Amino acid sequence: MKQFYLETFGCQMNVVDSERIVALLEEIGYRQTDSAEQADLILLNTCSVRDKAERKVIGHLGRFKPLKDARPELIIGVGGCVAQQEGAAFLDRIPYLDLVFGTHNIHRLPEMVAKVERDRQRCHAVDFLDRETRLRLFPKRSDTDSVTRFVTVMQGCDNFCSYCIVPHVRGREVSRPSGEILAEIRELAAAGVREVTLIGQNVNSYGLGTEGEVSFAGLLRQVAAVEGIERIRFTTSHPKDLSDELIDCFGELDKLCHHLQLPLQSGSDRILRRMNRGYSADDYLRRVERLKKVCPDIRLTTDIIVGFPGETEEDFRATLEMVERVRYADAYTFLYSPRPGTAAAELEDDTPAEVKQERFDRLLEVQNAISEQTWQADVGRVLPVLVEGRSRQGRGQLFGRTTWNRIVNFAGDESLIGRIVDVRVVRSFRNSQLGERVAGDGDAGASVSFG
Ligand code: SAH
Ligand code: SF4
Ligand code: F3S
User: Which residues form the Radical SAM core domain (predicted)?
Assistant: First the structure.
């Protein structure tokens, strides 16, 4: 049997796209392998959001060149956002690359692979599809043995934040019909899924611009009514589209986890304007206050960009101040880098790299301290954990997540997988927590805590 090797970079969209790639390749007789050396087909599903993404992909592909030299029949392909951005030019730049497929062309992969196999002809497909075709091809998968699943509810982005490549490589926003989303979630629940994460570049604008469609808050209420689904998460939220109706869902819907990823990007109004974000620091804070009012134990995480063109020390201090006021449980911090074709790439940028790096380090220090305090506060507390599977730590350990999306490892029997159980947190680390199960989650059989 022919084998393929696939590496995935980037966000949840690419994770879901990669699942689709796997399914499509299996249909044409390929089996997945985790060894590039053994593979007949090597694919990279790429992300272009970071600095020098193109060069990094080329560097990464270089690792496979000796394999191609030794076995010319090996097929090498690049998909995802870098592929979308580079198109046919990538074939010119990388002589040993066979295929390039963009973000709207995953469904064409089987045909493209067959073409390379048959004619030894290199090919590419990076055209954007129309709305109807995209809706027809929306990623969906209900055959699963996992407890948690991503469900794509919308694709693309219309926001054009001035620094961001995503709208250029993913195309315009389309919302999937709510009837189809619910049908998929019902199937997932029947297959044993207990938690769904609704995903899209900006889920808060779900349904806007589609006549007769429910709002995102309306969609959440419908998902919450699906029997068998016990937890709901969603990502990513744009603060400008976080409506009061949506915020209030955190107070109303028991199944909605008490965690929200709410990208701030900057705490300075001047920079937010230059970023084309559509909200001020005050607008953002008002939403945070309402969130904390309707759901007092909600934890927020965020994305922040340091060193945007024209950012002054004062602008940066405004960001630090927001971080201290909101007290994020975690933050993903990025040094600004110009992305080709975006509006910000045209802006003058005279802040020296060392100054940006120094700001970045200061931000990290402040945030790390807050994160540490947040997580240490969990130690000793008993928290409901949805058990997702066997832990990578081995030794009879299971793992699951708290409502705040923190991973907890604890000893327990596999029969608990798929259930919400009470776990006392005994230690807190950077990326996970260690716990022990306690009685009181309604399970008559086991009441021991494991050491
Ligand atoms: N749709 C999501 C994710 C966008 S990309 C959202 O709107 O939140 C993820 C993060 O990468 C962004 O939130 C931003 O913080 C960061 N990012 C995007 N473009 C960047 C750039 N040019 N330089 C530095 N960070 C960037
Ligand atoms: Fe990029 Fe802004 Fe769209 Fe997020 S909302 S994907 S940051 S353009
Ligand atoms: Fe990256 Fe594309 Fe996602 S650029 S963040 S993989 S939409």
Answer: 143-373
Specify the length of the chain in residues: 451
Which amino acid type is present at position 272? L
Q: Residue 348: is it exposed, middle or buried by C-beta count within 10 angstroms (0-12/13-18/19+)?
A: exposed
Task: Quote the CA–CA distance of 313 and 50 in Å, as a whole number.
Answer: 24
Mutation pick for ligand 1 pocket among 303, 335, 351 (CB with most ligand atoms within 8 Å): 303
pLDDT one-digit tens code per residue, 382-399: 999 999 999 987 778 999
* The one-letter amino acid at 100: V
pLDDT band at 446 (very low <50, low <70, confident <90, very high): very low
Task: Check whether 92 has a pLDDT greater than 80.
Answer: yes
Interatomic CA distance for residues 223 and 249, integer angstroms:
12
**pTM confidence score:** 0.94
Which domains are assigned to the chain? 2-127 (3.40.50.12160), 130-257 (3.30.750.210), 382-437 (2.40.50.140)
Q: Which two tokens stand for residue 228?
A: 């068998």
Say if residue 83 is exposed, middle or buried (CB neighbours under 10 Å; 0-12, 13-18, 19+). buried
Q: Tell me the C-alpha distance between 42 and 40, whole Å.
A: 7
Dist CA 76 CA 39 (whole Å): 10
Annotated binding site for [4Fe-4S] cluster: 11, 47, 81, 157, 161, 164
Q: Alpha-carbon distance 49 to 11, whole Å?
A: 10
Cβ atoms of 405 and 259 within 8 Å: the answer is: yes
**81 ligand 3 Cβ < 6 A:** yes
Residue at token pair 């060392």: 354
